[in-house]
């Protein structure tokens, strides 16, 4: 329906990406994304309207991607995006651009205006990270913190750059 990678394909590609050493001056941005109040959209406007919102988000996410970036639909209203970036500022700019671009859209469905936002758990990796299960768990925690803290926001994982084998620390940084 969205034309995006499914969960299995996305996780395989992420696992491959995490196993490859990063080039000098290259880092990764990983976003774990959930459409806010999606169930209400389906309940108020019907599942075809919800499908249209999913398709609109997929198009927005693809528009924020470059050639080597990839985005997947993990299931329901959950998505993820991986982008190669040159700096933490670049990562923050892409994440904010995605969040703001989707929030600015209005979908007209059978005469009704539908607006939606996303909550995002985000990670900026500037060295190899080989523990995908921990990374996904931490991103999921950051995503749900974004929802608990008001939605339509980004919660960033804090980096532990003192350890080269593991970038993600247990603490979360507020965006």
TrEMBL record:
Domain (GGDEF): residue spans on this chain: 26-159
Enzyme Commission number(s) from the entry: 2.7.7.65
Pfam families in alphabetical order: GGDEF
Reactions performed catalytically: 2 GTP = 3',3'-c-di-GMP + 2 diphosphate
GO MF annotation list: diguanylate cyclase activity
Enzyme class: transferase
UniProt xrefs under PANTHER family: DIGUANYLATE CYCLASE DGCM-RELATED (PTHR45138:SF9), REGULATORY COMPONENTS OF SENSORY TRANSDUCTION SYSTEM (PTHR45138)
Protein's name according to its UniProt entry: diguanylate cyclase
């Amino acid at each position: 329906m969205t034309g995006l990678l499914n969960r299995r394909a996305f996780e395989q590609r992420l696992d491959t990406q995490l196993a490859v050493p990063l080039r000098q001056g290259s880092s990764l941005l990983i976003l774990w994304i959930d459409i806010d109040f999606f169930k209400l959209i389906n309940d108020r406007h019907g599942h075809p309207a919800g499908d249209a919102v999913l398709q609109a988000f997929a198009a927005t996410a693809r528009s924020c991607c470059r050639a080597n970036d990839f985005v997947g639909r993990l299931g329901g209203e959950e998505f993820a995006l991986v982008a190669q970036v040159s700096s933490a500022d670049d990562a923050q700019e892409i994440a904010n651009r995605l969040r703001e671009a989707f929030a600015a859209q209005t979908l007209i469905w059978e005469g009704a205006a539908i607006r939606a936002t996303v909550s995002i758990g985000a990670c900026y990796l500037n060295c190899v990270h080989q523990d995908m299960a921990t990374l996904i768990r931490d991103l999921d925690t950051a995503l749900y913190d974004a929802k608990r803290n008001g939605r339509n926001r980004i919660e960033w994982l804090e980096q532990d750059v003192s350890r080269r084998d593991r970038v993600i620390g247990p603490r979360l940084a507020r965006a």
